[in-house]
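Subject: Sanity check before I submit

Could someone independently write out the C-alpha cells for this chain? I want to compare against mine line by line before I put it in a report. The sequence has 246 residues.
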Amino acid sequence: MANQGRRPAKGASRGTPVRRNKAAPAERFPPQKPKKKTAKVVFDAPQPEPEAPRTFRLGAVPGATPGKWIDAWKRRMPGVPLELVPVEAATQRTALDEVDAALVRLPLADESLHIIPLYDEVPVIVAASDSHLMAAEELTFADLEGEVVIGLTDDVLGRLELPGTLPAAFAALPTDQAVATAATGVGIMIVPMSLARLHHRKDVDHRVLVDGPVSTVALVWPRDRTTTDVETFVGIVRGRTANSSR
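---
Independent answer below. Compare away.
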C-alpha cells in the first residue's frame, strides 16, 4: 500500500483534456503591415529664381493728384517701389519714353499709346484777392470784358477766344510767375482748378469759369510696353481689387 495517501499529479486525473493552441498559423503570427511610403526628398531640386528688383516709374503733370492710387499701390505691391516723376505738359509725350506710365493732359493723339481718360477739371479765373471779379460765386466769358489776360508759356487749355478782353503787354509767363503777377492786380489768368490750388497764395483767389473749356487728365502708356506692373496700376486706377479679374 505504498501509494496510499499520495495525491494524484495535477492535471493527471482521467478525463481532463490537455489544452492546446489550435489557432491557425496565420492567426498566431499575423503578417506585418506594409510600411508607409514616404516622399523622397531631393535636396538638389532647382529653386525658382527670385524676381529681379524693379521700380514702377509713374509720370505726372502738374496738378495731377495720384496720391490715393500710390497708397493703394504700396499696399498691393510692397516689393515694387513706385517713383513719382514730374512731367511738364509741354513735353509729356517725350517723357513717356522714360516712365512706365503717366498721368497727362489731353489732347494727346498718338496711335502708339493706350489712353484712359480719368476725369475732367473745370477752368477757373485767377485774380488778385481784392479784384471785383472775386465778388461773384462763378464767372462767365461775359464777365471778363475789359480784363487783361496774362499769357502762359505752359498753357494747358489751348488758345481761347475771349472777346472784349485785352492781352497783357508783357510776354507770356510760366504759371507760377503768372500767379504772382496776377496778385499785383495787373491782369487775370485762366487755368484748370488743380493748378490754381497748386500755386495758391494768400493774395490771390479763383472762381470757376462756367463756360470755359475743361482739361481732361488721362492715364497713358506705350502699347508695346504693357507690362504686368502697368496692368496692376490700371486695375488700381479703375478700382479693381487684388482678387478682381481683368
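---
OP: Matches mine. For the report I'm noting this point. The chain is about 15% helix and 20% strand.
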